[in-house]
Amino acid sequence: MRLTVRAESFPVAGVFAISRGSRREARVLTVTLERDGITGRGECVPYARYGESMESVEAQILSAEAAIAGGCDRLGLLAELPAGAARNALDCALWDWHAKAAGRRVWELAGLPEPEPVVTAYTLSLDAPDAMRAKAAENAWRPLLKIKLGGGADLDRLRAVREGAPDARLIVDANEGWTPEAYLALLPALEAAGVALIEQPFPAGEDAALDSLPRPISVCADESCHDRASLAALKGRYDMVNIKLDKTGGLTEALALAEAARAAGFGIMVGCMLGSSLAMAPAHLLAQGADVVDLDAPLLLAADRDPPVRYAGARMHPPEAALWG
């Protein structure tokens, strides 16, 4: 099996900002596996927060070239590479290749029910309160909005978004940007605004702060949850986990993590990095039956794959086989 990896860039429609910075493009690595005239593809988004760069992840992908050429399968890949972006692109490309070789869809190979459309959150990027109010009003028809917070004006941002979208269900994502004091200060306003979920309020590694804090609103682990090995440290501190393929290192581990998390009593959120429809396609399978779906990245881009995942209203539809799976 021949492996190739290519760096690609997709422009963002405007600017995408979170507490750690802003971006005007989505930079991804696309992996292609080819054998017997059949091609499988996968995409990953190297993430600096996890010590990844485009160059380091590409090198990690290429380090598995001999193993892939020698017939390494998806389970073997779990031992070959650690969880992270590199393994994700390879794992998803293997799923795609095997589905095309078998003339079946990935959901059939995985023994899963045929996927259906899912309602996805729509993300409001971190901005000035007035700008976030306007963006919320523009998207007030959506049933679920996700607000990026983590700055000094968070209370004003929250109130502005609620004014702009009075009926939408709200999720707030601090991206590790709060302190316990900020959390406690914001909690009454979050409750008053009817916020349904708080994502990763504190830096990963500082989860013990949640041991002594009230949780009237469900709290979801994102940066603190990568794969099944993460779960033990989250028990009793978080109510949900956000599963992303670039953190788990692919669909194979993500499906196992979802099963283990449910068995441990966690709710499931399925999220994504800022990538194209090729990255969203395998995550759509994982999103079946999830409590919260946040797979809106292509909606934030000015250009996408062809064919793209289809979004109709607030619903994300299953990918075409020509895209993935």
* Tally of helical segments: 12
Mean pLDDT: 95
Helix content: 25-40%
Q: For the largest beta sheet, what order do the strands appear in spatially?
A: 5-6-7-8-9-10-11-12
Largest sheet: 8 strands, parallel
Q: Tell me how many strands there are.
A: 14
Determine the N-to-C terminus distance.
18 Å
Given helix and strand content, the structural type is alpha/beta
Instruction: Estimate what percentage of residues fall within beta strands.
Output: 15-25%
Q: What is the 3D shape?
A: globular
Low-confidence stretches: none
Could you state the order of secondary-structure elements as H and E? EEEHHHHHEEHEHEHEEHEHHEHEEE
Rg, alpha carbons? 19 Å
Structure explained in plain terms:
By secondary structure, the chain is α/β, with parallel strands linked by helices. Helix content is 34%, strand content 24%. It is built from twelve helices and 14 strands. The strands form three sheets. The protein has an eight-stranded parallel sheet with strand order 5-6-7-8-9-10-11-12. The chain has a three-stranded antiparallel sheet with strand order 1-2-3. It has a three-stranded antiparallel sheet with strand order 4-14-13, with no helix packed on it. Helix 1 (54-63) crosses helix 4. The longest helix has 18 residues, at 85-102. The chain is globular, with a radius of gyration of 19 Å. The two termini are 18 Å apart.
